[in-house]
Amino acid sequence: MCKTAVRNHETSLWKARIDTSRDFELFKQIHPQMRLSSIWSVARVRPQSLALMKLLACLCCQRPPEQPVECHRCHLPCDIQIEHSLFECSLSDHVQERKDFTLTLVNFGSPLFELFRTLPNKTFLAYILGYIDDNLTNALDESHYPDFLTLCAKLCNDLC
Ligand SMILES: [Zn+2]
């Protein structure tokens, strides 16, 4: 009984607070739509990927700097290092890296490979950061998503 009493008491206090405070009206509408991030879902089913998933979480949550930062490779100013490394940096072979990465996606089936061949840069980035997984269900078997996102994280790790 003691094991659950504190939790039950705190839960009831929390419920009473969100039911009576107007500050939580928007939260109550959004909360049922919230789900665990793809990144943490992968880390849960593949604990060995935790370090790589933490890297993706850091990259996703990075606030763009107020002023451009210096690229650690070419020393030119850039806003987001990973985006710069993937699409702009003159000292990284980003075109070849993206091609090599996309070619490895053949292992997950041709729909995913074809999807990634035609993605705009921002969408490509959003997928490899695990920021979005929309429309991947049409191109990738859900059971392969952890392997896919781990591969994406390795690419990001190589570029950082
Ligand atoms: Zn650069």
What does this structure look like?
The chain is mainly α and 160 residues long. It has two domains: 1-34, no CATH class; 35-159, no CATH class. 61% of the residues lie in helices and 2% in strands. It is built from ten helices and two strands; from the N terminus they run H-H-H-H-E-E-H-H-H-H-H-H. A two-stranded antiparallel ribbon has the order 1-2. Helix 3 (38-45) packs antiparallel against helix 4 and helix 4 (50-61) crosses helix 10 (145-159). The radius of gyration is 20 Å and the shape is globular. The protein starts with a helix and ends with a helix. Zinc ion (ZN) binds at residues 71, 73-74, 76, 84, 89, 91. Residues 71, 73-74, 76, 84, 89, 91 line the site of zinc ion.
What's the layout of helices and strands?
Blueprint: H1 2-20, H2 25-30, H3 38-45, H4 50-61, E1 69-70, E2 77-78, H5 81-87, H6 94-104, H7 110-117, H8 121-128, H9 136-139, H10 145-159
Zinc ion binds at residues 71, 73-74, 76, 84, 89, 91.
Which key features would you list for this structure?
about 160 residues, mainly alpha, two-stranded antiparallel sheet, 10 helices, globular
- The tally of helices reads 10
Task: Order the strands across the largest sheet as they lie in space.
Answer: 1-2
> Taking Cα atoms only, what radius of gyration do you get, to the nearest Å?
20 Å
- Work out the helicity level: 55-70%
Q: How is the main sheet built? A: 2 strands, antiparallel
| Beta-strand content | under 5%
**Poorly predicted tracts of residues:** none
* Chain-averaged pLDDT: 90
